[in-house]
Model the fold of this input.
Amino acid sequence: MLSPSSVARIAHLDRKPELVHANPAIRVPTFAEIYNSYFGFVWSCTRRLGVGEAEMDDVVQEIFIVVHSRLSTLQQPDSLRSWIYGIIRRSVSTYHRAKRTKITSTTLSSEPEIQYPQQPSPQQLAEQSDQVQLLWSLLEKIDAPKREVFVLTEIDELTAPEIAAAIDVPINTVYSRLRAARQELEEALQRHYARTKRGQPCST
Done:
């Protein structure tokens, strides 16, 4: 979770009056409402996109700062989740680029980037089981674009239109990636259970 100082830094951003959409019939949520409602979503998405545990506080804080700075540009408050996810995605991409640049400039040996996930998010701590760990290990074998759509659909419960808006692809691409991810996951599960039944090592 964010440290008290980080929370304090974010909290002061909401001292401005409530934002009002250009259409007066549409109310834009305040920053405080967004923070309270979407903190868990931001945290879990950020962790699953490969941000290291030690950097989570800083990256999540930066995401919410960007959310606050761009809140006045929100055109469709009913698509808030996809809008926030777009910010998460860009912020995490910036994080990974900066990390790679730092490693290259200091000629340090690179550690592999975390894929879905090496460590659970706070929301997943109560769900640890062999089945959950198996799911993540199999998802790591699916290429990133398909895996992203699968997780946003099945774990974060975004709709196909929300995902299309968030990752800026046609909605048919979302559906095709989701179908492919489900098929690959099903085939991987079948191979896993076949090996388990034969008593072979359960590598996927």
User: Anything to note?
Assistant: The two ends are 33 Å apart (CA to CA). The mean pLDDT is 77. The chain has two domains: 1-125, 129-204. The CA atoms of residues 85 and 127 lie 23 Å apart.
